[in-house]
């Protein structure tokens, strides 16, 4: 008996989606469920997990308030600085750059990703360290300038490390912009600044929101940049998790912080999608 078309389509869909769904279930859903279970447990005397059911780990979250505060303050600020640097660059690439050289310029934006973030961050450690910029400043009479192990150094590393992730979504939005709208605005007597704020910026907001959401979500779990450029003095949630799981071996408390971080990321994503939906008038799947 021949197979019904609907059944055949369902089988094809299951065959295509099944491997990805299985991968996500095993490596994303199950670990998260394990973290949730651990978060209600207690720390074993030798470290690790002791089965229990208690909310003590969540009640103890204020003990890591500094890590939460630094993350929730510096991550949005870092995303905003990335946006301020990325938007002019993306605008130039999409609107002003010569089409003959556009592909090469876009490639230059991606080139830093070919090098490990660890290596690039170590380079900034040298530049901001005592033998880098502070040493040059001391030669011209500006003494005792400390740039490394400060929030400013962390923000600089964030902008440098995550800038391409902000540029590309904005560039895609601007590159798809209908140039006839800009010409129509100019024909109606609008000045370039008015055209930008009334036409270009609103139409590129989906790309802006995608870039901001992407960078902010990744920064909420950042570990490497605060560790190297902050010198342990600028503590992010990622640093707290490494300390709790590897040093203190307090798995339940670390799991409670990790679950809270996941909830914060989901909240940020929902807010970003809501804002994108309101400013564009339709839901933006780019943010998912």
Automatic annotation (TrEMBL):
Keywords from the named record: Cell membrane, Membrane, Transmembrane, Transmembrane helix, Transport
Transmembrane segments: 21-41, 67-93, 105-127, 153-174, 195-220, 251-273
SUPFAM superfamilies: MetI-like (SSF161098)
One Pfam family, short name: BPD_transp_1
InterPro entries: MetI-like, MetI-like_sf
Subcellular location: Cell membrane
Keyword Transmembrane helix in record: yes
GO BP annotation list: transmembrane transport
Membrane topology: Multi-pass membrane protein
Domain called ABC transmembrane type-1: residue spans: 68-272
GO cellular component: plasma membrane
Family stated for the protein in its record: Belongs to the binding-protein-dependent transport system permease family. CysTW subfamily.
Designated name of the protein: Spermidine/putrescine transport system permease protein
Organism: Mycoplana azooxidifex
Highest classification ranks of the organism: Bacteria, Pseudomonadati, Pseudomonadota, Alphaproteobacteria, Hyphomicrobiales
């Amino acid at each position: 008996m021949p197979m019904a078309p609907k059944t055949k389509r369902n089988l094809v869909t299951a065959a295509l989606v099944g491997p990805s769904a299985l991968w996500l279930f095993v490596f994303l859903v199950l670990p998260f469920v394990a973290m949730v279970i651990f978060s209600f447990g207690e720390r074993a005397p030798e470290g690790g997990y002791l089965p229990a059911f208690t909310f003590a780990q969540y009640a103890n979250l204020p003990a890591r308030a500094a890590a939460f505060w630094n993350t929730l303050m510096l991550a949005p600020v870092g995303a905003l600085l990335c946006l301020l640097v990325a938007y002019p660059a993306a605008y130039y690439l999409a609107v002003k750059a010569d089409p003959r050289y556009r592909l090469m310029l876009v490639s230059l934006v991606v080139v830093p990703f070919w090098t490990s973030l660890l290596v690039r961050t170590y380079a900034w450690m040298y530049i901001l360290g005592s033998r880098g910029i502070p040493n040059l400043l001391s030669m011209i009479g500006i003494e005792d300038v400390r740039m490394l192990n400060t929030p400013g150094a962390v923000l600089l590393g964030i902008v440098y490390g995550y800038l391409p992730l902000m540029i590309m979504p904005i560039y895609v939005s601007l590159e798809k912009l209908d140039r006839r709208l800009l010409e129509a605005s100019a024909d109606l007597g609008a000045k370039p600044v008015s055209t930008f704020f009334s036409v270009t910026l609103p139409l590129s907001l989906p790309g802006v929101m995608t870039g901001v959401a992407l960078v902010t979500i990744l920064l909420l779990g950042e570990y490497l940049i605060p560790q190297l450029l902050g010198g342990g003095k600028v503590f992010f949630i990622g640093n707290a998790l490494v300390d709790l799981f590897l040093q203190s071996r307090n798995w339940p408390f670390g799991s409670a912080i990790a679950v809270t971080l996941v909830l914060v990321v989901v909240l940020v994503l929902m807010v970003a999608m809501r804002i994108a939906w309101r400013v564009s008038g339709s839901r933006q799947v780019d943010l998912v």
